[in-house]
Structures are given as structure tokens and as C-alpha cells.
Write a structure and sequence with these properties.
This protein is 62% helix and 1% strand. It is mainly α and 528 residues long. The protein has a two-stranded antiparallel ribbon.
């Protein structure tokens, strides 16, 4: 059996008794720079022997910057590794505002300001002052308004140009296909981009954006308080140049109507993705957005919930789902094909993470590749470092080890319930014990099959036998009239008590079939 070990960010080195797939040390030079910067932002001392994240346990703690959120995430992961309780949830509303202007853009605006007439400068007509005010998180700034206005003008021109090229019904079919292709392409783009920023900050220039993505996992509802213009303004800055290039090509008459429509839809979907994402977190989104969610046109709350809370299908009873490891697409819903379901089924995130690890390992040296955040939060995913032939057994071994822990917790729970039940205990307590013991029995059986896959065939036969018993019970019940109504058929008399007895038999058979079905649905993929 292969055991997997957690190594997270700046966590202390592993103890000698831990064995497994070893995570790489971080790039020391980059880490030194990051630590120095964060210490300047937060000079509060931390005792060297304090438990991980001790300073985050203070009542009313609020992060003082996006850099401190990175330390919070690392401390939380280290606490999980040590078996400590998780850190309290954060309220990102209490964070101070970010610096709205990058230094490069600030200098650019200063150069433009220098060209303004002296009389305007005397009256405070400064672009730098206009764009560099103090704004709370999620608040619209002049930068967002400017970008949104420019994008709206370019999209208006592109829409007019596309519609002017439609000459008949065939063109309408081409337009529909182009819009569909563009929307689904935007979904793939946001899937890959979302996964990347959730897991990597490869360059200091990416660090702020990556930490914003990861901070959303700690306070998912914060995004619902952001202003809509600000939300699309941020993504509009990313897509402004591609939209401008498409508009310039359209003005030159280069792309065909179909290509122009597909590219325009792709850019529009990419810009609207953060707003659609915000709607997926709102309890009561705008009526039109809610209708689009229900029709599967845009991402629904149910679909996006799988990203934050993990998917619960194909899980054994008692298993905890993995969070933030799939369902990254943020644009379209299930209508016309579910991009999330397709890319998740293909394990695209895991293949990307493996490729990043292998490429960075070749650059930085053996065992020193770059690990994604997903591997730090879910150490069993480090099995993707291994070749395909070894990976399956490593993943199964990690699953068995985690399930053994859950099974032990259930045993403790059964013992605790038994200890609280006296001789004259009420029926509710007895029923609670029966439920806990039944769950323990099911989990024990599941673990037996995981440890010995050859038992899966016996479980399949047991399921078929249970189905036959259910059919027989339904047949017996079908020959019984209503309760308390004696009825004679040949040599057999059916009455009320018989009806109730056969009803209970049918319910028990149906429950057994459902139990075995759920167990098989979880075990088949694990052992395939």
C-alpha cells in the first residue's frame, strides 16, 4: 500500500515517521522575497513555537491585505496536516481596499497629466488623482467605468456589423452555430483560467490575482456584495485588447460573419463570466438571470456548488468530497452540453497539474516541481505525479487510508451512543443506536470490498438476489386487498395483518436494493 503525505507551502519539514509521495521544497529565493514583503505589510510578531495560524485565532481578526490571506491559507492547510481544528472563517469585507493602480499604469497617467495645459493642472484635472482614489473592495472605480464604456462601444459596433452581414436563413443558422461555439469556448477558457489561478501564482505579477481567486474559497458570499460594473470591469480589462483587435479586423472586413460572431461571443462570455459567477452565489438573482439558470443557458447555483463543496456522487457512505478540484467553468449551463461535466470526466485539471509538475521539475530539478494548491489541500492527488500504471493503486490506497479513518470515527460514535443508553432507554435512543450500527456495518462492508476487489463480484450477486426478493415481495403484496378486508382465494385467506406484514417486507427489500445499489455505484468506478 502506498501512503501519501501532506507537505504544504511554508509548513515545517515532515517528521521521520511520515512516509509517502514527498512534496517539493519551495523556491527559497522567491519565498524570501514574499516573506519580506508580507512582514512589511504585517509587522506583528509571531512566537516561533506557536501553533500554525495562532495569530489568526484572535477575536475579530481581519486580514490586512491579500498577502496575509496567503499565510492564512498555508496555516490552515498545516493545521489540517497536524490534526488541529480549522481556522475561523474570514469576513473579507473587513479587508482594507486594494491599491487600484499598478505602478506602470500610474506612470503612464502621470505622463498624460504632464501634457495637460497648466490651467487644468492648477484646478486638479489629474488623471492620476481621478483613477487613484480610495475605494472599498467591490466598489466601481473610474477605471471600471472607462473600460466598460470602451468595451460597450466596441461590442455595439461588432453586433451591428454582424447583423448587417446576415442575408438569409442560412446565415441565421451560421450565426446560431457561431454563438454556440463562442459561448462554449468561453466556458473552456474560464475553466482553464479559473483552475490556473485557483492553484498557481508562478510570477509575482500573478500573485495578487491568484490570491483573490483563492480568497473567494474562504468567503464565497463576499462576491455577492460587489457592484456589477466593477465585476465586469475587472474582466473587461483583461479582454479589452482582444475585443479591440476583433473590432479592428471587422472594420477591415477580414473575418467572415461566422468567425466574427464566434470571437465576439467568446469575448462577451469571458467578460460576463464574473457576473454570471456572482449570480450563482446570490440567493435571489435577477429574474432574467434566474430563468437562464433554470434553462441551463448560464451556470446554475447547483452546478457551481460542486466546485465549492465537492461532488457527492460516487462517494462511499462517510467519505468527504474534495473541494475546489473541479467544476471550474463559469459561463454556460447544461443546455447544449455541460462543459464542466465533460472536462471533469476527462480529468483535465489533474492532467494540467501533472504537466505543470513535470515541466517545472525538469526546470528546477528532480523532486522540486511546482505543486498546485489542490495537492496541498488534498494530498492524495499527489498520486498524479506517478506513471499511469502506478497512479490507480496509489489513489486507491489513499482512499482506503482515508476511509479507515472515517470508519474508526463511526466506531467511536457507536461506542459513545451505547454508553449513553441505559437499560430503560427510550425507543428514540435505541433507534439512534440501530441507525449508527447499520451505518457502521455498511461502511465495514465497503472497506472490505476496497481492500479485496474480488469481493465486488459477490456484492453484484447479492444485489441481484435482493432485486429478486423485491420482485417477489411486490408480487405477494399485489395479491393482497386493503387492510382489515378479509379475502379468500383458494385455500389462502388474506387479511389486514397479512397486508401490513407484506408491506413491511416490501419496504425492507426495497431499502436493501437501494443500499446495495448506492454501494455498487460508488465502488465500481473506484475499482474499474
Amino acid at each position: 500500500m502506498i501512503q501519501l503525505k501532506t507537505t504544504v507551502g511554508a509548513a515545517p519539514g515532515p517528521s521521520p515517521d511520515q512516509t509517502a509521495l514527498q512534496g517539493p521544497p519551495e523556491d527559497q529565493a522567491l519565498r524570501t522575497l514574499i516573506n519580506a514583503k508580507d512582514q512589511l505589510q504585517d509587522p506583528r510578531p509571531v512566537a516561533p513555537d506557536a501553533e500554525p495560524g495562532a495569530r489568526f485565532l484572535a477575536p475579530g481578526f481581519a486580514p490586512q491585505g491579500i498577502g496575509e490571506l496567503a499565510e492564512y491559507r498555508k496555516a490552515n492547510a498545516e493545521r489540517r496536516r497536524l490534526g488541529l481544528s480549522p481556522l475561523p472563517e474570514l469576513d473579507l469585507d473587513k479587508m482594507p481596499p486594494d491599491q487600484p493602480l499598478p505602478e506602470g499604469l500610474r506612470k503612464f497617467l502621470q505622463n498624460i497629466d504632464a501634457l495637460l495645459p497648466e490651467i487644468l493642472r492648477k484646478h486638479g484635472a489629474s488623471l492620476e488623482q481621478l483613477f487613484d482614489g480610495e475605494f472599498r473592495r467591490g466598489e466601481t472605480t473610474p477605471v471600471h467605468l472607462t473600460v466598460l464604456g470602451a468595451n460597450a462601444a466596441m461590442f455595439g459596433y461588432l453586433a451591428f456589423d454582424i447583423l448587417s452581414k446576415i442575408e438569409g436563413t442560412p446565415d441565421l443558422a451560421v450565426l446560431a452555430a457561431a454563438v454556440y461555439a463562442g459561448a462554449k469556448s468561453a466556458d473552456v477558457f474560464t475553466y482553464l483560467g479559473h483552475h490556473f489561478f485557483d492553484n498557481y501564482d508562478l510570477h509575482p505579477a500573478m500573485r495578487h490575482e491568484a490570491l483573490e481567486f483563492q480568497a473567494h474559497h474562504y468567503d464565497p458570499k463576499e462576491v455577492t456584495k460587489w457592484e456589477d460594473v466593477m465585476t465586469v470591469g475587472n474582466s473587461g480589462m483583461t479582454m479589452a485588447v482582444p475585443v479591440a483587435i476583433i473590432a479592428a479586423l471587422a472594420a477591415a472586413g477580414v473575418p467572415s460573419m461566422g468567425v466574427e460572431a464566434a470571437l465576439t461571443t467568446f469575448c462577451a462570455g469571458s467578460i460576463l463570466a464574473p457576473l454570471i459567477h456572482k449570480w450563482s452565489h446570490l440567493p435571489h438573482p435577477p429574474k432574467l438571470a434566474e430563468l437562464a439558470q433554470k434553462l441551463g443557458v448560464i451556470v446554475s447555483p447547483e452546478t457551481h456548488r460542486g466546485h465549492h463543496f465537492g461532488k457527492r456522487d460516487q462517494l462511499l457512505e462517510g467519505e468527504q468530497p474534495s473541494r475546489h478540484v473541479d467544476s471550474f467553468a463559469l459561463v454556460t449551463g447544461k443546455l447544449g452540453g455541460d462543459v464542466n461535466a465533460l472536462l471533469d470526466a476527462m480529468s483535465v485539471p489533474r492532467h494540467v497539474e501533472r504537466a505543470m509538475w513535470m515541466i517545472s521539475e525538469k526546470i528546477r530539478g528532480p523532486g522540486q516541481g511546482i505543486e498546485p494548491v489542490a495537492w496541498q489541500e488534498h494530498p492524495e492527488l499527489r498520486a498524479w505525479k506517478l506513471p499511469k500504471g502506478e497512479r490507480k493503486q496509489a489513489l486507491l490506497s489513499a482512499r482506503i487510508a482515508a476511509y479507515e479513518t472515517e470508519l474508526e470515527r463511526q466506531r467511536v460514535k457507536v461506542r459513545d451512543v451505547k454508553a449513553k443508553i441505559p437499560a430503560n432507554s427510550p425507543p428514540e435512543r435505541v433507534a439512534m443506536l440501530q441507525v449508527a450500527e447499520a451505518k457502521l456495518s455498511r461502511m465495514t462492508r465497503a472497506l472490505e470490498v476496497l481492500r479485496d476487489p474480488s469481493q465486488l463480484e459477490a456484492l453484484e450477486k447479492e444485489y441481484q438476489k435482493a432485486q429478486a426478493q423485491l420482485i417477489a415481495a411486490e408480487g405477494q403484496l399485489g395479491r393482497t386487498f386493503m387492510p382489515n378486508t378479509p379475502f379468500t382465494s383458494g385455500d389462502t385467506t388474506f387479511d389486514g395483518p397479512t397486508f401490513l406484514k407484506r408491506t413491511r417486507a416490501k419496504e425492507q427489500a426495497a431499502a436493501r436494493v437501494e443500499e446495495l445499489s448506492d454501494l455498487l455505484q460508488a465502488l465500481r468506478p473506484a475499482l474499474a
